[in-house]
Amino acid sequence: MALPIKTSYEPMNAKLVSEIPKGDNWQYEPKWDGFRCIVFRDGKTIHLQSKSGQPLERYFPEVVETIAKLKADKFVIDGEIVIPEGEGLSFDALLQRIHPAESRIRKLSKETPGKLIVFDIVAEKGKSLVEEPLSVRRKHLEAFAKKYFKDEERITLSPSTTSYADAKRWFGEVGAALDGIIAKRTDMPYQSGNREGMVKIKNIRTADCVVGGFRYAENAKVIGSLLLGLYNEEGKLDHVGFCSSFKASERKALTPKLEKLIEPPGFTGSAPGGPSRWSTKRSTEWQPLKHVLVVEVQYDHFTGGRFRHGTKLLRWRPDKAPKQCTMKQVKQEAAQSPLKLTRSKQRSSHAA
């Protein structure tokens, strides 16, 4: 039997903006720190699809089991798989699911089970809803969740609000544990593969880091990236990420200055890793530096002792002592768990 909508269906995407938009036609949702997942179900056939179109059911059998328990048997929903950890969410626990053996995945699915947070519905009872505006789809989704999610621990409805003040408050309540805010136009249909009518506003933060080393560029002996460090509670310098946001002229001028500071060990705690399936021998070669240089960088997320992505260099900090660059800067603090938002009373997109 065919699925209600073809699999390998590209989800609606968001465009990054700097400010939360205001207006009567906007709905706001938390930006969850997980794996995007479109769920297709047609009877006993269940398919979990990643943002890139890859199957996820092998890696999250507990989510498949949860979907199988739902009494609805023909639908397509859009959401995010997260793994709760303490009062927050663990992206590192999600990464542990990718590539390991099936026995390992089964073990992790019981030790650190995933949860599906649903924020849109694409089809119900075999009928496509993609042409309906978000205001209509949200009503369908809330009714769907009320009917089918109430007895299941591993699936929940993402909160939404049409109040700009509520969206701003979420930043204050959940702080660094929230990945940001998503804003969607309530008068637009589901835009598969497009970035129209949906924007994301991320929690952008800054940190002062010690430059503990550098890598040369791949095809020239000029600086390719700075290796960043923060001091842990034991007073050791841990490698936490990299920065490569330089102009060509800056790389050339910076190279001799850094080469004069080459001195092992560079990092006294955790150091840049060795070769892996994602790196080449060249990418693991790096030069250690004396602990004298400090830079201020901009980042969007810090998890598992590392910046999630590359950082943006804002400025050099000659006024800052390297020993002041500690992990306390990036400690995630929040007034409440981000998952409490899913349990709190919410103002829906069609509220009066």
Short description:
The protein is an alpha+beta fold and 352 residues long. It has helices spanning 61-69, 91-95, 102-111, 134-148, 164-174, 248-259, 281-284, 340-343, and strands spanning 15-16, 26-30, 35-42, 45-49, 74-82, 84-85, 88-89, 115-124, 127-128, 155-157, 180-185, 198-202, 205-216, 223-231, 237-243, 287-288, 294-299, 302-303, 306-307, 312-316. The chain folds into 2 domains: 15-203, DNA ligase/mRNA capping enzyme (D-amino Acid Aminotransferase, Chain A, domain 1); 205-330, OB fold (Dihydrolipoamide Acetyltransferase, E2P) (Beta Barrel).
The run of helices and strands is EEEEHEEEHHEEHEHEEEEEHHEEEEEH
CATH class of the largest domain: Alpha Beta
Distance between the termini: 41 Å
Unreliable residue stretches: 274-283, 345-352
Helices and strands, with pairings:
Layout: E1 15-16, E2 26-30, E3 35-42, E4 45-49, H1 61-69, E5 74-82, E6 84-85, E7 88-89, H2 91-95, H3 102-111, E8 115-124, E9 127-128, H4 134-148, E10 155-157, H5 164-174, E11 180-185, E12 198-202, E13 205-216, E14 223-231, E15 237-243, H6 248-259, H7 281-284, E16 287-288, E17 294-299, E18 302-303, E19 306-307, E20 312-316, H8 340-343
Parallel strand pairs: 1-12, 8-10
Antiparallel strand pairs: 2-11, 3-4, 3-5, 5-8, 6-7, 8-9, 11-12, 13-14, 13-16, 13-17, 14-15, 17-20, 18-19
